[in-house]
Amino acid sequence: MKSKKDIKKKKQEQVNVELKTQSKDPIQTRREFLNKLWKGLGVVAFIELTAVFFGYLFSGKSENENLKPKQLFDAGNINAFQKKSVTIFRSGRFYLVRLDDGGFLALSLRCTHLGCSINWEEDKKRFICPCHASAFEINGNVQNPPAPSALDYFPVIIQSGRVMVDIGTKLSRNRFSKDQVTYV
Ligand code: FES
Predict the structure, then answer these.
(1) Cis previous bond, 146, omega within 30
(2) Following DSSP, what letter does each residue of 83-109 receive, concatenated?
(3) Over the stretch 98-134, which tens digit does the pLDDT of each residue have?
């Protein structure tokens, strides 16, 4: 059995412990809190950086996918266009040409001299510019200057039997060549 003296001693010890706890230096307490805060923030930042790094690594994106998306203009069914025909699409700013070998070519409406809109002359099978009389063949080659180069053109894609023109991609060229033509 504990004596009164022991009990008093025990109580005094408890009081001492409490006093010691309460009297902890407030500056030290703040420092400990800030240390814990910085450690926590460091862990969060590390996790975020790791997520960003792996997200970039496994996104599967190539440089080509970052290029501008295609603006496809649906010109119609391939059977709607006869060989050796020229059809104007004013809203798309192009002429769709079907050459005598069946290939498709989408030519820009703009003259390569100073940018006037060209007209198709069906009887003479040529494009003519009303501004300074440049003339172009059905494939866009210069027939008569001052136009310095062949008409610009847009890539043509055949999709499910339809002629699609990428009006977001205008291509310049000096002369016509077969690799500019799309075949069915
Ligand atoms: S703008 Fe066409 S010939 Fe000058």
Answers:
(1) yes
(2) TTEEEEEGGGTEEEEE-TTS-EEEEES
(3) 999 999 999 999 999 999 999 999 999 999 999 999 9
Query: CB of 127 closer than 6 A to ligand 1?
Result: no
Calculate the alpha carbon distances from 140 to 68, 85, 111, 154 in Å: 26, 13, 10, 12
Q: Which fold has domain 72-180?
A: Rieske Iron-sulfur Protein (2.102.10)
Distance in Å, CA 113 to ligand 1 centroid: 5
Ligand 1: centre distance to CA 39 (Å):
70
Q: Name which of 174, 110, 177, 112 is nearest 146 in CA terms.
A: 112
Q: How far is 18 from 14, CA to CA, in rounded Å?
A: 6
pTM for this prediction: 0.65
Which residue minimizes the CA distance to atom 1 of ligand 1? 114
CA distance 138 to 121: 10
Ligand 1 proximity of 111 Cβ (cutoff 6 Å): yes
